[in-house]
Amino acid sequence: MYEDKKTLMRSLVDTLNKAGKAYYSEGREIMSNFEYDKLYDQLVELEKETDTVFSDSPTIHVGYEAVSELPKERHPSPMLSLSKTKDPEELVSWVKDQKALLSWKLDGLTIVLTYMDGQLYKAVTRGNGEIGEIITNNAKVFANLPLKIPYKGQLVIRGEALIKYSDFNRINENIPELDAKYKNPRNLCSGSVRQLNNEITAQRNVNFFAFMLVSASDVDFKNSRAYQFEWLKKQGFDTVDYRMVDSSNLLENIEYFKSQISQNDFPSDGLVILYDDIAYGQSLGITAKYPRNSMAFKWMDETSETILRSIEWSASRTGLINPVAIFDTVELEGTNVSRASVHNISVMRSLKLGIGDRIKVFKANMIIPQIAENLTQSDNIEIPESCPVCGFKTSLRNINDVTTLYCDNPDCQAKHVKSFSHFVSRDAMNIDGLSEQTLEKFIQMGFIKDYADLYRIDRYKDQIIELDGFGKKSYDKLIKALEESKKTNLVRLLYGLGIPGIGLAGTKLIVKKYGKDPASIIDLSLEELTIIDGMGEVLAKSYVDFFKETAMRKEYFSLLDLVEFEIPDDQASSQGNILEGKTFVITGSLNHFDNRSLLKEKIEALGGKATDSVTKKTTYLINNDKESTSSKNKKAQSLGIPIISEDDFLEMIKE
What we know:
Blueprint: H1 2-25, H2 33-50, E1 72-74, E2 84-85, H3 88-95, E3 100-106, E4 109-116, E5 119-125, E6 131-133, H4 136-139, E7 155-162, H5 165-173, H6 185-193, H7 198-203, E8 207-216, H8 225-234, E9 242-245, H9 250-260, E10 268-275, H10 278-283, E11 294-297, E12 304-315, E13 320-332, E14 335-341, H11 345-351, E15 358-364, E16 368-374, E17 394-399, E18 402-407, H12 413-423, H13 436-444, H14 461-466, H15 472-485, E19 487-488, H16 490-496, H17 504-514, H18 526-530, H19 537-546, H20 550-562, E20 564-565, E21 583-586, H21 596-605, E22 609-611, E23 620-622, H22 631-639, E24 643-644, H23 646-652
Helix pairs in contact: 1-2, 12-13, 16-17
């Protein structure tokens, strides 16, 4: 019996460590938090029963060694994780007769900041708890982080760097490939904070929320964590929202936080409770893994049982085919849910899914529908041997121990539709009037076979005018949009080609370094590409391989002959960097610019910066309705930030 338990423990340790390494060091997720917590709790119970703990058990080891080229530094003392519970009554017993702070457990990347003489001196990631990565240069461009504070002594604080859901969705919307989209805000934040080029970090709008003051010399904090929080706010820091609690009102405050989750724009995976009495908390000491002055509360996931009715296979323009579970509608966290992504073939196989199975579904962090477990595990899902879109054969690929399904047909209609949709999108060639539905019609009728065919679409004028939903007026509008799109820049053209893995930010970096000769930019070598900060070998190889294809090279040169490079590649125009050092936020409807992206381009071309959130770093809020009661106007007014109209802006940049 003992040996059986040891064997199971060994298996659990290996599985959890593999999942932990993928999550913390590689930015991948190979199992859900629900499944991880379930296996972790099982391991804890077995260790108690056997009085045995393996040396590599995740119950005594914290995190994993980070993998990157950033310099590393050992923390003065280990950064421990928190003991956790899902039982509210256990928290009440833990509080006893003390007062405590109840706050969000933010789901981002923990950072340690050091300030000296009122200036940000150093920023280090948590890493594996003992050794972190120095990311000071990146921290300097966090959206809400003060670089200078009133306090002039040495200050050390801990906090969470995170990317809000609104920014996460905005960034994903600009990534047309389903398989290239970021899985969750935490993974995106992890990659953003650890960039070698802080320009990319700045574009991601990373926020920092302080949750612990470690030390500040010669300051009397009245022996109160709450006092520390309020003191940090006066220094210019955003702190995690908290409520003062005791054993009499703790449960109702837990319910309050729970009621706020659906309204939050930031990711969290539970709550943290911390004794307000600093001396009392410190007197309790620490265990091998946990401090005793605080504790984490994880939500008891609301699960609902339902029946799996089908698997929908969703094809993307890169050929990846993802399984999506379709099940009988259930209500979760106040909304109706009937579908959930299964992510990939590996996850589907681990769940042993079958049509008609009884499954339990939940919302990860009360937001994202996922399958928690499969109660019947009939494992009868057949992986399609042919693409659901074109009927061509499919293949399974195994990358980093994750199995995915791909369509092998280079001419798959799904690939073409998605590729063309990306090419005409706002940040690419910006061709208005070409929806995916219209593109699909054009492809089916043989009007377009490559991107250049779009600019020769007038050959089919009579047929297009006769199509359902079209007509002379729609046709003329499309032709006008196509002509206007020819006036473009190299960034838009290259980005529109859809080079796998290389988004808009990466394209800008390449063009900034090598964009003087558009004809030769497709002949860059691995060595030339990898010297660009933020361009690793994987992306560089993707770029090189993309332009090895004769057909793609031919298409690129065909497009070069058609376009006119009239818009600066995000470089200063003849007006110079007249907006350098200024940060703008745009809201409301526009009168002079067709859309916000064009206004942002103008700001960036003149050396300025355009962000989505009003913060202390914002210089101007552009809103034609200056008297609006919108949240951005209110925030700008509270911070004393000028609100200007488009006319004011145009006057500002007038030569």
